[in-house]
Amino acid sequence: MGGVCVYLFGLFLFWSPSTFLQAINKGEEKVIEVLVSILIFMSFTLVSYKKKKHKKKSNHEEYFIMYDVLSTSYRDRLTQKIMNAKHEIITTNIFAATKSSIEQSLTHLSKNHIEDIVCYGLGNFSECKIALYQLALLLALQQCYDCEVLLYDPQFKELEEDILMTEKCSLIAYNEKGKRKVDKTTLFFLPHCPNKLFNNIISANWGLGLHNCVIIGNRFSEIMAGSPDRELQKHLPYLYFIGPSMVEIEIPNNFKYSDVFNDMAVHSFPIEKLLIADEQLWKKTFEETEDESLELITKSVNNMKLEPSFPL
């Protein structure tokens, strides 16, 4: 990457502004992003140089204009890619399958609508097509249920945050680590996220409050089958003990890219199942251990993303 930056910086020094603007029309997003970074560096350097030396700059105004054009071009292209992906998702079976699974879960809850959507750990959708398509599904669900969408990922870039807000999404200001207590029907959207997030959502709403939670994430049955009971009780105690009170509806993975929506399900907690649980269960508090999964929530859920099986 360093060699690429040096090469592009050399081009920047010797190309004229008009040649630069012609080059970006070829549409290489990665190149555009590097060029924007170089222009930011150059503009700060030039301003600093003026303050210190009080010398006249030669045509640097053109490069400020180029920075604006590059930024706008990159943003517009990324926004269009998101809209294209959303349209594609809506017209494929994965959206119908996801919506059907959610509707079945709402039926189990005796509810008919999602009121809020909370998404953790989406990832950098400007760089990763897995995250891009997951965002497209999220926006399709937002449109379907006409509800507020709140997101958090510590790795979101400023441009990504701006685009999300343009799409009428709200950003969560700090790392909740999944410990959000809700009082209305809320869809938690956790594609391929650490299981600790799943556990923490259940912990925050422990008791009859789970009736308000619908969770799209890694299949509960796969989580239970993948680790010994003692490890689950140690690291994911709330997830482990909620099993009998949960309904899991698998989302068939029929998307053209198999590693975008694989091993996912919709999980809900019907009130009748919660009411027949032992009352002592709801009075329990479990000692939770800090483990690798929790650390991933703090650092970046991006690290849990699958490597795409298709080129970026």
Topology, number of strands: 7
Q: CA-to-CA gap between the ends?
A: 16 Å
Q: Quick check: average pLDDT?
A: 81
Structural class: alpha/beta
Strand percentage lies at 5-15%
- The coarse silhouette is globular
Q: Name the strands of the widest sheet in spatial order.
A: 3-2-1-4-5-7-6
N to C succession of SSEs: HHHHHEHEHEEHEHHHEEHHH
Regions with pLDDT < 50 over 5+ consecutive residues?
A: 46-57, 298-312
Largest sheet descriptor: 7 strands, mixed
Computed Rg: 23 Å
| Helical amount | 40-55%
Number of helices: 14
Task: Explain the layout of strands and helices.
Layout: H1 2-14, H2 17-24, H3 29-53, H4 60-90, H5 93-108, E1 116-120, H6 129-145, E2 148-152, H7 158-166, E3 169-171, E4 186-189, H8 195-204, E5 213-218, H9 220-226, H10 229-235, H11 237-241, E6 247-250, E7 264-268, H12 271-275, H13 279-283, H14 292-299
Parallel strand pairs: 1-2, 1-4, 2-3, 4-5
Antiparallel strand pairs: 5-7, 6-7
Write up this protein:
With 312 residues, this protein is of the alpha/beta class. The chain is built from 14 helices and seven strands. It has a seven-stranded mixed β-sheet with strand order 3-2-1-4-5-7-6, with helices on both faces. Helix 4 crosses helix 6. The chain is globular and about 60 Å long. The model is unreliable at 46-57 and 298-312 (pLDDT under 50).
Summarize the entry for a quick read.
The protein contains 14 helices and 7 strands.
List keywords for this structure.
alpha/beta, seven-stranded mixed β-sheet, disordered C terminus, single chain, 312 residues, 53% helix
